[in-house]
Amino acid sequence: MESSRNLLPKGKKSSRILKMSYIKSKRLLIITFNSGATYEYYDVPTEVIDGITQADSLGKYFDKNIKGIYNYRRVVNG
Length: 78
Known about the structure:
Layout: E1 17-23, E2 28-33, E3 38-41, H1 46-54, H2 58-65, E4 72-75
Antiparallel strand pairs: 1-2, 2-3, 3-4
Helix pairs in contact: 1-2
């Protein structure tokens, strides 16, 4: 499986998002929320990834540009 890296900018904190990863070849965004829930978002273009990593508020960007727009599924952890 292709590896992914944490996209959360170093030193940047979010009240909702704990970790973000992106597999470019699959256009797959993986977000782990502070609640511990992890979701996969499908067919997310790199422009959206660029936007969220540069956003002042990750949660606001997520709500406006990802949530309800891209198909997703909850990942069952361990």
